[in-house]
Amino acid sequence: MKKFLFSGALLASTISFAQITLEKTFSKDEKVHVISNNKDISYVSATKDNKLVLYNSDYSIIKIINVDIPSGYTLHFYYDSHESWFTVSKHIFNTDNNYEFVIEIRNNGINKTLIIDENGKVLKDFSPNETDSNYELTVFHDEKSNKNKLIIDVTTNNFTDTYQQVYVLPTSSLSIEEVKENSKLQAFPNPAQSTLNIVNPKNGANNVEIYDITGRLILKKDFNSNESNISVDVQDLSNGNYIYKIGNSSAKFIKK
To answer: Of 13, 25, 168, 245, whose CB count within 10 A is highest?
Structure first.
């Protein structure tokens, strides 16, 4: 009986283990990101020869985008379904039906942020002059003006000076719904040094709570539900990772 039970347990273990199988190994010359909220594109990779490669869910190539960048620069791409969902988008930065990508190119401490379309056309160069700048982007919908906007946290001068720029984006009814859906909880700048500005998700809540990574409540601030942006003083927080929560929505930010 014991032998039978052991054999059964071994068989069950073997079956469970067999369910995990390698499906795809990408080239060592590309950095791949999973695009979790897109119906057309499943993976995007940035290659060492400065191309963006778009993949289907079966790993077949949809398109290879040749990115025309200055000599000496390298291509970098980042995607996160919560904090940087707009790095792969449509109808957010342009009014046509082409996909748009937010990319970064780097050269010995010089970082340039660009928006390109699926044909490699540059829609916006946020840093046309070569400087030691770093750019953090946040897309949000301004309820008062009913326009989509982009706020950029710019760090420059050897990363000692920080300021913000706000851009108005091409706005349509389709893009409004997409921005509202994806930017339910957005904050800038992130990382933050002294003040964290949170876009009001308008979810009925009237306070924001900040927790450390252990789940301990660090601070709580009430706000007027009609406010578009909620400013929270985080200057006295220790450097590290935190969670901010409004109602049932939560997201992370970094204090530096």
So the answer is: 245
